[in-house]
Amino acid sequence: MTKTITTRYDVAEHLRTPEEMAAYLEACLEEANGDASFVAKALGDIARAKGMSQVARDAGLSRESLYKALSGERSPGFDTILKVIKALGLKLHAEAAFMVAPTAEKGHLVDVGTPRG
Fold first, then answer.
1. Residue 5 and residue 17: Cα distance in Å, rounded?
2. CA distances for 39 relative to 26, 98, 110, angstroms
3. N- to C-terminal Cα distance for the chain?
4. 113 in the Ramachandran plot: left (φ > 0), alpha (ψ -120 to 50) or beta?
5. Which of 1-5, 42-46, 52-56, 60-64 has the lowest average pLDDT?
6. Can you tell me whether residue 88 is helix, strand or coil?
7. Which residues, listed in sequence order, are joined to residue 109 by a DSSP beta bridge?
8. 25-34, 59-68, 104-113: least confident range
9. Residue 80 sits in which domain range?
């Protein structure tokens, strides 16, 4: 019987283009459910794909502090996240999670469902 050899999967090896990096970050943002360390880890994956030393230089951070911030073991500050996103050549965007409309009762707002787009 032959022995099967497996290797650890590294998503950074599969993030080759800016579009793939952006799609990966978008998917991770949707799956994070408010977990900032999960998002930080995703940014770390993208930074490794792009080259951690170059990303650290472009973000104005040391390589060591960038590795720590994006390890997924902590939640980095939002200023660090913004610097890293800019250094990666990515942008954040926002969209409404749900639409609201006033009710007939004294202007209360009600959820009328998620936007279709």
1. 29
2. 10, 22, 30
3. 53
4. left
5. 1-5
6. coil
7. 102
8. 104-113
9. 1-117
DSSP β-bridge partners for residue 101: 110
Q: Are 47 and 19 in contact (CB under 8 A)?
A: no
The pLDDT value given to residue 116: 53
Length in residues, the chain: 117
15: exposed, middle or buried (Cβ count in 10 Å: 0-12, 13-18, 19+): buried
Domain count, the chain: 1
Token pair for residue 63?
Answer: 């390589």
> pLDDT class for 90, splitting at 50, 70, 90?
very high
Lookup: tokens for 56:
């650290």
3-state SS class at 18: helix
What is the Cα–Cα distance from 61 to 84, expressed in whole angstroms?
A: 9
pLDDT tens digits, one per residue of 31-43: 999 899 999 999 9
